[in-house]
Amino acid sequence: MSPSRTMSQAGADLNQAIGRGDRWLILINADPDALASAMALRRIMAYRAETVGIAHVNEVKRPDNLAMMRFLRIPSVPFEPGLCAAYNRFAMVDSQPHHHPAFAGRHYSIVIDHHPVLPEQPCKAEYCDIRPDYGSVSSIMAEYLRGLRIRPGKLLATALVYGIKTDTQSFERHFIEADVRAFSALTKHADMVLVRKIISSEYHRRWLKFFSKAFRKMRFVGVRGLFVYMDVLESPDILVMLADFFTRVHGLSWNMLAAVVKGMVVVVFRGDGIGRNMGHMAAKLFGDIGSAGGHRGAARAEIPLEKLGGKPVEEFLYKRLTGHRLPTKEQCPVEFPAAPHAPRTARAAAGQQKSALAK
Question: By 3-state DSSP, what share of the chain in percent is helix, strand and coil, each rounded to 5?
């Protein structure tokens, strides 16, 4: 969209693209930004369309996403090809048609996204608004609502606030001034108690066993690092959950958690954003054998299992990380390794105590 276009002009153009009496299905790859944006587009379409549905092509597993859908009453359903028969128009937010195999096979009249356009995959929708400079699509949808003079209700405003918050990682990841303006305006209508409730949503009960396993298998690396190999897991979301948990442990500045998920070695990195750059670390360690990269505080690598040449996964990862052979659990400290100055401090404290007793 040209910068010269105003919010009201953009809103009028979008309204024109919707038409009257059509039956719309909004398809998404569900995450907080996509769910919130679909909810906003549904609100805009409600004035002109006969019916509007939302369907997600991925399986929603993360507890915060499930909590968001439940608390904010987002009526998204799992996508099945048979759904399409009930609709005559299709739209997409926070994705482009080539982003997921399930998106193929139909024409999209509206596409609103913030991911870059690939030259070999141009957008062919009648109405296409793609802004790669924006931190979230939720910010774009907030501008449409404002341009159309639609005041978002509490649940919609809360969803958009959470969408902006997650995709910009609370403004630690890429964002522009428009994201800040949208967030600030939406907080006047949002329920921030609900936002906190979603953020601190309960873990799946079946995931609790993985905490116990992670505690048994954790190995400290240097003074501030942690490495955990979780064997085979059903979902990489479990690694993300554990990695996020370990960032809250005092004394740790970074962690690396890994597992085999569906034939891929998935490695999740988390850092405090002050010391090591996790994106650079992931690329340096595994960029030569898989896809690897990310941001300063969060990164990820995915390596085909066959690239390890039959080597034990835990040993391979530890050798790549440290340059040393994997120690036995008996050789690994249970407590954090002492900082270099700690023995000196302890001796000084003992000397002061001895002097005090001599007096």
Answer: 45, 20, 40
Instruction: For residues 210 and 188, give the distance between their C-alpha atoms in angstroms, rounded to a whole number.
Output: 39
Q: What are the tens digits of pLDDT across the range 305-345?
A: 999 989 999 999 999 999 998 887 665 655 555 555 544 44
Q: Which two tokens stand for residue 175?
A: 């964002």
**146 and 245 within one domain:** no
215 contact partners, CB below 8 Å, separation of at least 6: none
* CA R_g for the chain: 24
Q: Judging by beta carbons within 10 Å of its beta carbon (0-12, 13-18, 19+), is residue 281 exposed, middle or buried?
A: buried
Is 31 found in the same domain as 136?
yes
Last residue of a domain, one of 199, 232, 265: 199
Each residue's pLDDT tens digit, 23-52 = 999 999 999 999 999 999 999 999 889 999
CATH number for the domain spanning 313: value is 3.10.310.30
Compute the Cα dihedral for 316, 317, 323, 326 and give only its sign: negative
The CA angle 74-28-122, to the nearest 5 degrees, is 150
The number of domains in the chain is 2
189 and 211 share one domain: no
The whole-number average pLDDT for the span 3-28 is 81
Residue with tokens 């910068």: 3
Write down the residue that tokens 């859908």 correspond to: 69
Quote the pTM value: 0.67
Smallest Cα–Cα separation from 294: which of 313, 275, 271?
271
Category of 276 on φ-ψ map: left (φ > 0), alpha (ψ -120 to 50) or beta: beta
Quick one: average pLDDT of 236-264?
A: 92
Q: Where in the sequence is the domain holding 67, given as residue range(s)?
A: 7-199
